């Protein structure tokens, strides 16, 4: 089994996703559900293939599956979800057989997925872009109240 499949099956990830789903039951903005995680994984992988960005599928899928697991901490304790997410991801990645250098790269990508910086690594930029492209802002009824800047919104057609 690929390591990212083990991440998808990890009981902690499943439990975080359940808590997030409960908290987001009445959310009018984008939800952070499995559909979103998979969309981010697929889009990031397509971009990596198209643009020949040298990041493996095993790393891309792990980062995409784990990038929002800190959301519950943000809802309940006000901790930015990329910071809590990177911390929580570390243990799951270890359990799934990722090596220390791979864990460093994945958690770095998670930490960078919310705000774009030119100084970011290719992997950080990849996760940031895929996260934004995964959202169909052009069809969103809550777009006017959304706190995303116009640069972040995906008003085109998602790949
Ligand atoms: Fe996300």
List the helices and strands and how they pair.
Blueprint: H1 3-9, H2 11-23, H3 34-50, H4 57-66, H5 71-77, H6 81-95, H7 100-111, H8 122-133
Structure description:
The chain has 159 residues and is mainly alpha-helical. Helix 5 (71-77) packs across helix 6 and helix 7 (100-111) crosses helix 8. 58% of the residues lie in helices and 0% in strands. The chain is globular, with a radius of gyration of 15 Å. The longest helix has 17 residues, at 34-50. The mean pLDDT is 93. The protein has a single domain (3-145), classed as Orthogonal Bundle (Hypothetical protein af1432), CATH 1.10.3210. The protein has helices at 3-9, 11-23, 34-50, 57-66, 71-77, 81-95, 100-111, 122-133. It starts with a helix and ends in a 26-residue tail after the last helix. The structure holds fe (ii) ion. Fe (ii) ion binds at residues 32, 36, 40, 67-68, 131.
Reading the helices and strands in chain order gives HHHHHHHH
Mean pLDDT: 93
**H/I helix tally:** 8
Report Rg: 15 Å
CATH fold call: Hypothetical protein af1432
For the sheet with most strands, the description reads: none
Q: What is the helix content?
A: 55-70%
Please count the beta strands (DSSP E, at least 2 residues each): 0
CATH superfamily: Hypothetical protein af1432
Can you tell me the CATH architecture? Orthogonal Bundle
Could you tell me how far the N terminus lies from the C terminus, measured between alpha carbons in angstroms?
28 Å
For the record, the count of structural domains works out to: 1
Shape: globular
Q: Ranges with pLDDT <50 over ≥5 residues?
A: none
The proportion of strand residues reads: under 5%
Kindly provide the name of the CATH class. Mainly Alpha
Class inferred from helices and paired strands: mainly alpha
Hetero groups in this structure are: fe (ii) ion
């Amino acid at each position: 089994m690929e390591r990212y499949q083990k991440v998808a099956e990890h009981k902690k990830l499943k439990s975080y996703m359940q808590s997030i789903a409960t908290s987001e039951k009445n959310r009018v903005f984008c939800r952070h559900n499995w559909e979103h995680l998979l969309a981010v994984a697929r889009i990031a992988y397509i971009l990596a293939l198209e643009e020949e960005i040298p990041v493996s599928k095993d790393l891309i899928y792990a980062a995409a599956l784990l990038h929002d697991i800190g959301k519950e901490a943000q809802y309940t304790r006000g901790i930015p979800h990329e910071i809590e997410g990177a911390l929580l991801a570390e243990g799951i990645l270890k359990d799934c057989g990722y090596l220390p250098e791979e864990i460093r790269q994945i958690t770095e990508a998670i930490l960078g997925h919310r705000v774009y910086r030119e100084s970011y690594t290719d992997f950080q930029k990849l996760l940031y872009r895929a996260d934004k492209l995964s959202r169909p802002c052009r069809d969103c009824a809550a777009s006017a109240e959304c706190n995303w800047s116009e640069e972040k919104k995906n008003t085109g057609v998602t790949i």
